[in-house]
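mind reviewing these tokens:
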Amino acid sequence: MILIEISCPAGCFSEADRSRIVEHIWNIALSDDHAPTETMRRARQMAHLGFRELTDWHTGDGPVDSKDAPPVIASVSVPQAWQDETARHMIGVIKAAVRRVDNEHGWSRAPGSLWVLINGIVDGSIGMDGKASTADEVLQAMVADYQEAVKEGRSEPFPDGMLVDPMCGMLVRPGPHAITLEHDGETIGFCAVACRDAYRAQHALV
């Protein structure tokens, strides 16, 4: 689950501009490197991005000048448990996508004209399919197809020297920065803290 709403003054971005921003964000945020097909199919279904065009946009100095880079406020909503990790990644991704369009137009962007807000939604306030849900329930929905493939012996093989996240099937390279835990004498790797915490909860690990 990643829900992105990009607010900007009406008419500032062309259809081509919006397409380039969307393409850049999804190419990075939904990269399928080291991810099984089943997990990425669900991840793409549960990711949404839209533009909200607003009229009469003013800053404290008055109406925005159409000759400058248009102000942008991007709101990214994820489960609260994912907020910190999402912030470290998505703020830079969205900045790069918007600046790419700025450069194509030769726009100069004033300080404080691009905001990326990462909103963490608390458990019980996530209305997945109209039902109050938790971060773990969102994750379970995202990895359900992969978990079914594992049960049926259809999971994809992974290269030697890599760890596989047992929750979502992502490949994890061992190293000092890898997210891991020890369970039954085995080192298990995870793509994110959310997957590690969900695994801990499933196996009643402290």
Q: What stands out?
A: The chain has two domains: 2-127, 158-206.
